[in-house]
């Protein structure tokens, strides 16, 4: 009995332990499910928080860029007012509307009519100085005169009114804008539509050697190097020689005067109208007024060339200018006579007479 009682006790003890263990398992499962729910809920909250933080960051970055753009444009406007129109390229669309020099093309508010150009050419140090009077018409009201210039040192500027009350107009400020190769003249009061005005500009520049604008070249004659200065304005290089509306759409007439050492001769589109010799050994050639044309058609040369000429049946004089030794050897005779034949052919074919009083051609300087 004692043994049985012990076994019964032990049996009951084992069954009770097994029962207890069977009772614990459901509690562990519920706790595990509860833990998983917390993990899922925490993960979902983390994702939602990340989305919210990302959205806030994007909104803040956009707002920061807008503020930075506004502050940079305000800074650019401030520098423009302080330094006569900023030379950097910053600014928003409103700035471009208020500042026409920032556009790649010239504003259409003004239209040139006539250029009176006077140049003094120094072949000893390859420099030239000039003065240009531009007569222009105002199409739309504006306070700005924007002209093309490139590598020109502007000395003086004056603007005149050609209306019933002629006089000098006050200039508020003037400055180069190298980014678009323009010179800007800002006036105190607006130019009025349908009225004509004049701008007078004096300037200095170098006779470059890059074969563009007004440049120099050379050739050898009898063992001596000779120099010449000629122009190449097409397509947009007249601005290297004088301030102008250097776009093909802006057509005007031109009157050119060239002053240089008397040992040189000068050529241009039109015949010499008058030649005046100075006491200092220099000469000034005044050329006739050209037809209405774009700036890149204008041309001139200061050189020691000689020439041969022929005359067409209609009376047009054709001259070929070249190095003296090339003219003497007859190297240009074919070009001269074929030009005459071609000109006569086109006059007969189109039944239109050549419109200019002369036709000149210069041949290559190097030999």
Protein traits:
Peptidase_M1_aminopeptidases; Immunoglobulin-like; Thyrotropin-releasing hormone-degrading ectoenzyme-like; 367 residues; alpha+beta; peptide binding
Account of the 3D structure:
The protein has 367 residues and is of the alpha+beta class. The protein has a domain at 100-304: Immunoglobulin-like, CATH 2.60.40.1730. It is 30% helix and 37% strand. It has helices spanning 2-82, 93-98, 324-328, 333-350, and strands spanning 110-122, 127-138, 142-148, 153-161, 167-169, 171-177, 182-191, 196-206, 213-221, 224-232, 253-261, 265-268, 272-277, 282-287, 300-303, 306-311, 317-322, 358-362. The protein has an eight-stranded mixed beta sheet, with no helix packed on it. It has a four-stranded antiparallel beta sheet with strand order 9-10-15-12, with no helix packed on it. A three-stranded antiparallel beta sheet has the order 3-7-6, with no helix packed on it. β6 (171-177) and β7 (182-191) form a beta hairpin. It is elongated and about 110 Å long. The relative contact order is 0.10.
């Amino acid at each position: 009995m004692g043994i049985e009682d012990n076994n019964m006790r032990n049996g009951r003890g084992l069954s009770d332990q097994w029962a207890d263990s069977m009772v614990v398992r459901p509690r562990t499962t519920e706790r595990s499910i509860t833990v998983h729910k917390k993990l899922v809920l925490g993960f979902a909250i983390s994702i939602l928080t990340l989305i919210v933080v990302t959205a806030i960051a994007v909104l803040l970055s956009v707002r920061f860029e807008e503020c930075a753009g506004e502050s940079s444009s305000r800074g650019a406007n401030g520098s423009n007012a302080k330094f006569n129109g900023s030379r950097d390229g910053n600014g928003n669309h409103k700035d471009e509307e208020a500042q026409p020099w920032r556009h790649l093309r010239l504003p259409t508010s003004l239209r040139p009519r006539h250029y009176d150009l006077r140049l003094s050419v120094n072949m000893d140090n390859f420099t030239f100085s000039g003065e240009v009077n531009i007569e222009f018409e105002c199409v739309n009201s504006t306070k700005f005169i924007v002209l093309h210039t490139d590598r020109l040192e502007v000395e003086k500027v004056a603007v005149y009114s050609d209306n019933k009350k002629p006089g000098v107009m006050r200039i508020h400020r003037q400055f180069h804008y190298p980014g678009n190769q323009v010179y800007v003249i800002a006036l105190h009061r607006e130019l009025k539509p349908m009225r004509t005005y004049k701008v007078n500009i004096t300037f200095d520049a170098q006779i470059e050697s890059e074969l563009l604008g007004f440049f120099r070249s050379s050739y050898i004659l009898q063992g001596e190097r000779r120099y010449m200065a000629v122009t190449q304005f097409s397509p947009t290089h007249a601005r290297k020689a004088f301030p102008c509306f250097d776009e093909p759409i802006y057509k005007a007439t031109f009157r050119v005067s060239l002053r240089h050492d008397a040992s040189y001769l000068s050529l241009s589109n039109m015949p010499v109208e008058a030649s005046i010799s100075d006491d200092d050994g220099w000469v000034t050639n005044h050329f006739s007024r050209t037809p209405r044309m774009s700036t890149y058609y204008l041309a001139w040369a200061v050189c020691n060339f000689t020439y041969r000429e022929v005359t067409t049946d209609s009376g047009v004089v054709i001259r070929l200018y070249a190095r003296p030794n090339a003219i003497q050897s007859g190297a240009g005779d074919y070009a001269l006579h074929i030009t005459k034949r071609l000109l006569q052919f086109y006059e007969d074919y189109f039944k239109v007479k050549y419109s200019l009083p002369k036709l000149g051609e210069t041949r290559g300087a190097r030999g």
